[in-house]
Design brief:
With 124 residues, the protein is mainly α. The chain folds into 2 domains: 57 residues, no CATH class; 50 residues, no CATH class. Helices cover 64% and strands 0% of the residues. The chain is built from 7 helices and no strands. Helix 5 packs across helix 6. The longest helix is centred in the middle third of the chain and has 18 residues. The radius of gyration is 21 Å and the shape is flat.
């Protein structure tokens, strides 16, 4: 049961975000050497986890869980929005939620989106 990095998927996700792999690695704080070393490996999952999964006759992914699911993020966002709203009764909750969402993005991503959006606005 091999779990290796799919370069096709990495390249696809980079293209979707208008990034090249070098930019993505730099922004992620991962060295090119570390990334390409992992990409060359037959598997990137610890061998002990592979052995456990094989013994249980299940996939490695069945033993893993995502710690930051979209549902958990949305619940946390709603809780934080409510807390801020109670402290600032005159502020629109949608504005609070939107601001919190933007603060979770990397500044470079917020800037890119604003620049893309700005290209389509006709200012006359």
């Amino acid at each position: 049961m091999d779990m290796k990095i799919s370069m096709d998927k990495v390249e696809y996700e980079c293209r979707r975000r208008d990034l090249n792999i070098g930019e993505m690695l730099r922004e992620a704080g991962v060295s090119r050497n570390a990334f390409y070393s992992l990409a060359r490996k037959d598997y990137v999952v610890p061998s002990s986890l592979i052995l456990i999964a094989e013994r249980l006759h299940i996939s490695v992914s069945a033993l893993l869980e995502e710690t930051d699911t979209p549902t958990e993020r949305m619940k946390s966002l709603a809780t934080e929005s409510e807390r801020i709203s109670k402290r600032n009764p005159g502020v629109d909750r949608d504005n609070i939620r939107h601001t919190l969402l933007l603060l979770n993005e990397k500044p470079v991503e917020r800037l890119r989106r604003a620049l893309r959006r700005g290209r389509f606005i006709d200012i006359r």
